[in-house]
Every structure is written in structure tokens, then in C-alpha cells.
Amino acid sequence: MTQSVVVQKKYYLPHVHEICNPCFSVGQCGNQIGCRFWDLALREHAHVNKEGLYDEALSSFFRNVDSRKSDGGGCAVGESIQHLKARAVLVDMEEGVVNEILQGALREVFDSAQLLTDVSGSGNNWAVGHMTYGATYREQIVEKLRKAAEHCDCLQCFFIIHSMGGGTGSGLGTRVLSLLEEEFPEVSRIVTAVYPSADDDVITSPYNSVLAMRELTEHADCVLPVENQSLVDIVNRIKRMAHGEKPGSVIKKNSTIISNKGGLSGAEKPFDAMNNIVANLLLNITSSARFEGSLNMDLNEIAINMVPFPRLHYLVSSLTPLYMLADVNVPNRRLDQMFSDAFSKDHQLIRADPKHSLYLACALMVRGDVQLSDLRRNIERLRPSLPFVSWNKEGWKTGLCSVPPVGHSHSLLALANNTCVKPTFMELKERFTKLYRKKAHLHHYLHVNGMEQSCFSDALGSLDALIEEYQHLDATKDRFIPDAIRLSIAS
User: Fold this and answer.
1) 259 pLDDT band (50/70/90 cuts)?
2) Which residues contact 56 (CB under 8 A, 6 or more apart)?
3) Residue 448 domain boundaries
4) End-to-end CA separation in angstroms for the chain
5) What secondary structure does DSSP assign to 303-360, as a single string?
6) Residue 280 within a domain
7) Which of 59, 102, 178, 353 is most buried by a 10 A CB count?
């Protein structure tokens, strides 16, 4: 009887349905971050997968291709690993970054069918990326989207990674987003969008960002905004610790934050450390889809639980720990500190302080050896200091993944639907208006076929409406009175 059960289990194992999450990297920034994400993901799976089997954890983001098969078909879950291919499409209108990837350590993870490149670039012009290249490459993009979907038994969600300040990332990136909605309207679309800093060297970045924001507001299910300036601040803080500014704090070499290249060929670049942080955001948000856990969070649940109003889907993210300290075995006191840090302004990936704004919802995605009781205890500890909307005081979503990032004992990603994003949008509007009031550089956009001045006014109107929605929520916020101070109990 026992033997027949074992045989039956082995027979059915290859027929496990693969729940897949294809990723689309667009533009220079998007592909650099995407490359780093794939590099880190492979490291995590290599650390856990000791038997060399293609398991469900791998299948969510990787295909297992057997080149010995005449059709180049994939291997089923449960078989030996042959050649792993990322479930990804890489798009850029310049060849530089994609060529670096193809010459680097990850060259075998992608094949030509997953790549789409041009040579001339978008000239830091949203209209060229969205209108010109969007029209020229529409059929090829759709074909690659469909091909990526065909390799999946069950589509869970799409990830899109791009910047907001350049032409290809903002323009073609948001075109890919709208094409995904057209082709797969029922599949969630989660966008990681990197916003330029105020002193960005692309003078038209405010135009590109506001034009792209209208598309993100209309076509994305969730947007994870990341600000370049926040990344710079975080990297500088890590470097100060590395030089011993805080006694007893030593950053390990080759950590997931400060190690260089990450699958790219060539020398380390100044922005590699910044890209690593964003890649770690993706690594943590996808962990529940890649590994087992006692309380795993379905990626679709993020949009369902975190977005009470369809346009207000911008989620502020924070990561902790930001660096790996020498003492990996962290006692409970530091575990609690990790939860506190997640709500500190120093750990946010945009310049914001969510504790002083209004929460619509909050998600905590914990990795490592953390108990559900630890999670609940910290929520109860922090809850009194966090202002939630009156109609969603219990608006917490939690996830526990048992596999920590390599080198960590545990980690935490917090996602907050919070009105603290409003100042970021207001600052972007101000920079846009400074240019638009003078009609500066407008002719570069209006010369593009299909681009009209109404695109600018419509995009600005969309941003105004978004800011107004956040202002309305802030105006309805009850006067927040924290709980009475309690005596501390010595441990």
C-alpha cells in the first residue's frame, strides 16, 4: 500500500501547474535593475536548492529548457535542472546595457527571443518612446508578451521595471504596460518606477515623468515608486557605516546591497549600489511566490488588499535591514528594531515620513525564522502610533516566507498605501510647471507624430486630480491622539 502511494506521487509530480510571474524590463535603468534582480534570485535559489531539481520555487520566475528536445521545450517541475531561462522580456532602444548583460555572467539566462533592442535611443523624449517606438515595435512587443505568457500554465501577475525620467523607460515602458492591459486585462500589473531627483541631468525629466504618471495611474494595478535621491541617501548612509562611523557596525563584503556588477560585464558603476537596493525590493516582494512559508502572500492579494480606490495604487516601500551586520544571529530586541525601522523615514525608498501621514493600508512581508507571534506582537506595538483611515483601522496584510535573503537571518519589506506620496507628486508637478509655463523644450515633443499639446495638459490634469484625492483624504483625517504613555518593563 505504501509503495503504490509513492509511485502515484512521482507520477503526478511533473503535472504540477506552474504559477508564473513574467518580468518586463524597459530602458537602461529598468534592465540594469532587472539584471541585478535575476542575479540575486539565482543566488537565493542556489543557496536553498541543493538537489539540482527544477521545483515549484524556481518555476515561478524561471523556465527549465532542455536543449536536447527538438522543439527546445521546457522540462516539468520535479525534473533535473537543464538550462534555466528567466521569465523575462528585455526591451531597450539602445543596445549598450543589453549587450553588457549578454557578455556577463547571466548571458545563458536569456535568449534572443526575449530581447528587443534598437540603436538610436529615445533622446530623453517620452513621445519618441511611447509614440514612435511604441508604434514601430508594437507587433514585436505583443508577440514577445504572448510568447512569455504561452510558457506559463497559470499567469499570476506581470512585473514591469522602468525609470520615469528618460525617454525609453518612461515612454516605451508605459506603452508596454498598456499593451499588457490590452492583451491580458485580468492579470495584475505591478510596476516598479524609478523617479528622477530634482537635480537630474535630463532637463526634460519632469515632462517625461508627468506624461508617464498618467499612464501609470490609468493602467497599473500597483506602482512601487522609488526616488533616486532616497537611494543616494541610503547608499551614503551605508558607506558611512562601512567606514566605522557607528562603532561595532561592520558591513560584510559582497552583501546583496554593496556588491557590484550583479550579472553585468564591465567595471562597477556609481549607480550599481542604488540598483541593488531596488533589486532587493523586487527580491522581497516576490519571495512568497518563489519560496514556501507559513503565511505566504499571494501577489494578487497586494492589489486586492492594499488598493481601496483604483487610482490610489502608489505603494511606499521600505526595506530593513538595509545592510548585513557582522552579527547574523539577531536577538529579539533587534528583531523588534527591524519592525520599527520599517516605519522610519530613513528606510523609505521615497523621501517621505509615513508615520506623519494617513495610512489606507499596510502590508508587512517578513522573511526568515520569524514566528507569527512576533509579527502580531510588533503590529500591536506599532499600531497606536500609526494613523489609519477611520474605516480601515485593521488594514494590515501580512506574509511570512521561511527563506531569508542570503546572508540575513531575517528581513522585512513594508508596503504602505499612504498619503505621504503626495509631496513627491506635488514637487514633480512644480518642476513640470516651471518648464511648461515657458513652453520650454515643447517643440521636441510636438514634432513627434501623434503627439499633441493636449497630451501635456491632460497629463497635468491627471496629476492634479491624483494630488487632490490624496488631499481630500488628508483633510478627512481625524485628529490623531496617540495612546497614553506606558511604563517600560525592563527585559
Assistant:
1) very low
2) 16, 18, 19, 77
3) 423-475
4) 54
5) HHHH-SSTT--B-EEEEE-SS--S--S--HHHHHHHHHHTTSGGGBSSS--GGGS-EE
6) no
7) 59
Where residue 1 falls among pLDDT bands split at 50, 70, 90? very low
Burial class (CB in 10 A: 0-12, 13-18, 19+), 256: buried
Residue 216 pLDDT? 98
Q: d(Cα 399, Cα 408) in Å, to the nearest integer?
A: 17
CATH of the domain at 466: 1.10.287
pLDDT above 90 covers a percentage of the chain that reads: 66
Query: How far apart are the C-alpha atoms of 285 and 301, rounded to whole Å?
Result: 12
What are 176-204's pLDDT values in tens digits?
999 999 999 999 999 999 999 988 889 99
What is the domain count for the chain?
Answer: 2
The last residue of one of the domains, among 255, 275, 307, is 307
- Cα–Cα distance measured from residue 217 to residue 369, given in angstroms and rounded to the nearest whole number: 37
DSSP 6: H
Residue 283 is placed in which grid cell? 527580491
Task: Please check whether residue 318 lies inside any domain of the structure.
Answer: no
Report, as an integer, the average pLDDT of 314-327. Answer: 73
Compare 384 and 12 and report the one with higher pLDDT.
384
Return mean pLDDT, the chain. Answer: 86
Cα pseudo-dihedral 406, 411, 416, 421, rounded to 10: -70
Q: Which of 221, 82, 69, 86 is nearest to 152 (CA)?
A: 86
Cα 299 to Cα 278: distance, rounded to the nearest angstrom: 18
Short-list 308, 85, 273, 286, CA closest to 190:
286
Q: What percent of the chain has pLDDT over 70?
A: 84
Q: How far is CA 182 from CA 88, 148, 171, 486, in A?
A: 19, 15, 17, 54
- Whether the link from the prior residue into 206 is cis, omega within 30° of 0, is no
Least confident range from 96-110, 132-146, 235-249: namely: 235-249
Cβ contacts of residue 390 below 8 Å, gap of 6+?
Answer: 478
Contact 415, 349 (CB under 8 A): no
Residue 252: inside a domain: no
- Give the domain-ending residue among 307, 325, 349: 307
Q: Which residues pair with 117 in a beta bridge?
A: 92
C-alpha distances (whole Å) from 236 to each of 272, 273, 279, 321 are 13, 10, 18, 15
pLDDT mean over 145-159: 92
With contact defined as beta carbons under 8 Å apart, do 318 and 414 qualify?
Answer: yes
484 belongs to a structural domain: no
CATH number at residue 57: 3.40.50.1440
Decide if pLDDT at 248 tops 70: no
> What is the band of 211 on the pLDDT scale with cuts at 50, 70, 90?
very high
Distances (CA, A) of 89 to 30, 123, 172, 263, 482: 11, 22, 13, 16, 48
Dihedral sign for Cα atoms in the order 273, 278, 283, 284: positive
